[in-house]
Amino acid sequence: MATTLAKAADGTEVAEHAARIEHVSKSFAGPAGQQLVLDDISIDVAPGEFVTLLGASGCGKSTLLNLVAGLDKPSAGTITTDGRPALMFQEHALFPWLTAGKNIELALRLRGVPKNDRREKAEALLELVRLKGAYGKRVHELSGGMRQRVAMARALAQESKLLLMDEPFAALDAITRDVLHDELTRIWEETGLSVLFVTHNVREAVRLAQRVILLSSRPGRIAREWTVGIPQPRRIEDAPVAELSVEITEVLRGEIRRHGQH
């Protein structure tokens, strides 16, 4: 479903939201019948906003992201987005028989970019993610962090206004993850993208987002949300990041205890 348009001050039409999730529930068939995974979720993501979805494993974060991406349909409720979102997974999902540049060009080709323009655009995207000169490198020649940068460039090649990220840095070491936090923040600020980012890492959520939404489990419901007023650039070890992380962690622990998770 298409998003609603509003008039800007200069009279141009702009989207009211990058994503609107309205009273969404999702059930799956199980041995004991239908299992409710998400229950009455409502979230608006404003244009240019960075929102993190936080929660324990099994709370339905990835399920919700897949619904927003259009990979599945909700059992109830509606989801609207400003155009088709781009999706970035925890695994880079690059084609190993293609170079870094050709992986990006594939996304450009699917978007309808003329063949003669693809290499230039792919190289520009590699430069944006600070991989200038990596166009001809094969996937096995790239480190884990470099592979995720290529995956990010490929997602950006879709020129979507909404980027969906499903724990994209979870498998990386702490130093590489910290560097990619900086890169993602820079790219978000430079491009004006809206980002909906799934994580179970509280400090990562606070480090990146303007707003943190905590999902409870079994079924996933919105337990609480926080507006993060800490100015960027942030570091994961900054005192305000640590303080808010402690507060959110206590609420998350309470949700885990309440639902009998370990």
UniProtKB/TrEMBL annotation:
Keyword Metal-binding appears in the UniProt entry: no
SUPFAM superfamilies noted in UniProt: P-loop containing nucleoside triphosphate hydrolases
Keyword line: ATP-binding, Nucleotide-binding, Transport
Keyword Ligase annotated: no
GO molecular function, one term: ATP binding
Residue ranges annotated for the ABC transporter domain, each copy included: 19-244
Short name of any one Pfam family annotated for the protein: ABC_tran
Protein name, entry field: Sulfate ABC transporter ATP-binding protein
Species name: Streptomyces dysideae
